[in-house]
Amino acid sequence: MTQIVKMKGMNKYFGKLHVLKNIDLTVEQGEVVVIIGASGSGKSTLIRCVNGLEEFESGTLEVDNHPLAPRGGNQKNLAEIRKEVGMVFQQFNLFPHLTVKNNITLAPTRVKRTAQVVANATADRLLERVGIGSQADKYPSQLSGGQQQRVAIARALAMEPRLMLFDEPTSALDPEMIGEVLDVMRELAKEGMTMMVVTHEMGFAREVADRVIYIHEGQIVEEGKPDDVFDNPQNERTQAFLSRVLAH
Ligand SMILES: Nc1ncnc2c1ncn2[C@@H]1O[C@H](COP(=O)(O)OP(=O)(O)OP(=O)(O)O)[C@@H](O)[C@H]1O
Ligand SMILES: [Mg+2]
């Protein structure tokens, strides 16, 4: 099996705050790993380390066999890793001054030097795939939140990533739009995309995750198959967290 993400003994601080504590985590190719935990536990920080949006202080981190150096080290692999890792944020982060299609073609044409016609064709195909083929010439502000998030997913896919990171991709959406974004993610998972997903959508986690990881105050305190973690959590912190979130 190919390991796409390998973290060993990883530690990260924000000043004096020890945010990630001795994290050991591997993600296999094709695996969907869902990360859950209370607000402030370090979920976003953990996945942001994977594409170098945050630096870590010690330990090792490899993405698709490219090591990322701890803070102060030589980040010679960062550009390559950014090319291979797609990220979808809670707030979509689309470029407001570009049309939907140009949002999607920007990185392939600039970073990979893909010809514009080729990038355009890819964008059309991806927009169909995420169910918004007719929106290519609109601007982000003319779309619903669910549509914008699907553009963000298409934009990430246009770089043909080896790994997709999702940080609460449905948290900013009205309830009726959550399903359409989760549907796209479910399809991606089915097609074999390697994914790390931070989400509070426990139904989605149970259905789609190969593995669920529970983080408490920067430490992985429990991980396992979704049915095991949700139905029979071993750690009392996990039990307390799940009884809070599943009660809603
Ligand atoms: N840029 C930063 N500078 C200083 N502290 C930060 C920074 N980003 C996050 N933190 C702190 O690090 C801790 C972990 O934050 P993180 O955003 O990773 O949590 P989270 O689990 O994603 O929370 P949420 O569910 O609210 O998104 C928190 O205590 C947070 O306040
Ligand atoms: Mg977060």
What would you note in describing this structure?
By secondary structure, the protein is an alpha/beta fold. Helix content is 38%, strand content 26%. The strands form two sheets. It has a six-stranded mixed β-sheet, sandwiched between helices. The longest helix has 16 residues, at 175-190. The radius of gyration is 18 Å and the shape is globular. The mean pLDDT is 96. The site of adenosine-5'-triphosphate has 11 residues, from strand 2 and helix 1.
Low-confidence runs of at least 5 consecutive residues: none
Order of helices and strands: EEEHEEHEHHHEHEHEEHH
Radius of gyration over C-alpha positions, nearest whole angstrom: 18 Å
Helix content: 25-40%
Describe what is shown at a glance.
The chain has 248 residues and is α/β, with parallel strands linked by helices.
Per-chain topology:
Layout: E1 3-14, E2 17-28, E3 32-37, H1 43-50, E4 58-63, E5 66-68, H2 78-84, E6 85-88, H3 100-111, H4 116-129, H5 145-157, E7 163-167, H6 175-190, E8 194-198, H7 202-208, E9 211-216, E10 219-224, H8 226-231, H9 236-246
Parallel strand pairs: 3-8, 3-9, 6-7, 7-8
Antiparallel strand pairs: 1-2, 1-4, 4-5, 9-10
Helix pairs in contact: 3-4, 3-5, 4-5, 5-6
This protein binds adenosine-5'-triphosphate and magnesium ion.
